[in-house]
Amino acid sequence: MARLRDVVAEAAQAGAALLVTPELSATGYQLGRGRTRQVAEPADGPLRDAVSALAQASGVSIVYGWPEAADGVLYNSVHLIDATGRVAAHYRKTHLYGEFDAGTFAAGSDPVVQARIGGRTVGLVICYDVEFPELVRAHALAGTELLAVPTALTRPWEFVARTLVPARAFESQLFIAYVNWTDTEPDGYCGLSRLVGPDGLPLAEAAGGEAVLIGRLDPAALAAARRATPYLLDRRPDLYGALTDRQAPASRESS
């Protein structure tokens, strides 16, 4: 909370309306299953109250992540707290990556979660979720203008931040705030946080180490991108339904 207070103060001074923090930002990601269970809280726990008070005092809306305890299981969750201190959106990660995620958390079942912040529609996904084009496209079709993506991306997967995230922004014509942890370990978090425009080009990106990135969303850029590459208008959903319902082919190892 002390670190978050400092970052919120910096964001507020820069005139930011919304602050997005990394995946499980309230606790850290790689805690192990036992420790993660120990620090888990319900959605209406003391952590929510503390972040709500901070958002209300600063006038900055905040996206933060934590391990949520609910119904006897854990979820990898995020809250979007608006500038009045209200929980504007609550999302549970729907695509679980790797042994830790799948062995610790239950998968969420609500794919498109949104809130109106500063006159813009903000959607929420978490880390691995953004790597699924179907989910990002669903957000675009539901009117999401800015997709906030709290992340815990490690090396050697820098490709995701550098190439895949801009592609997602371009193909669905929306802004993406991709916010990652950073460290210097060879297999640690690779940083590369960035705000990408609907044309796939970066509006702000971290060069290395910790940083508070400030970017501005221009609604004219959103409209221009959708005119230039009208993927959303030119879709043929009548062709896709049966295709997206198919199971993935078996891998060599399981065939």
Work out the strand percent. 15-25%
Q: Write down the overall geometry.
A: globular
Please state the second-level CATH architecture.
Answer: 4-Layer Sandwich
Order of adjacent strands in the largest pleated sheet: 5-6-7-8-9-10
Gyration radius (Cα, Å) is 18 Å
Q: Helicity level, as a percent range? A: 25-40%
- Examine the coordinates and then state which fold CATH places here, giving the name of the CATH topology: Nitrilase/N-carbamoyl-D-aminoacid amidohydrolase
Count of helix runs:
9
Instruction: Determine the structural class based on helices, strands and strand pairing.
Output: alpha/beta
Biggest sheet descriptor:
6 strands, mixed
Mean pLDDT: 94
Q: What is the CATH level 1 assignment?
A: Alpha Beta
Total number of beta strands: 10
Concise synopsis of the structure shown:
With 255 residues, this protein is an alpha/beta fold. The chain has one domain (2-245): Nitrilase/N-carbamoyl-D-aminoacid amidohydrolase (4-Layer Sandwich).
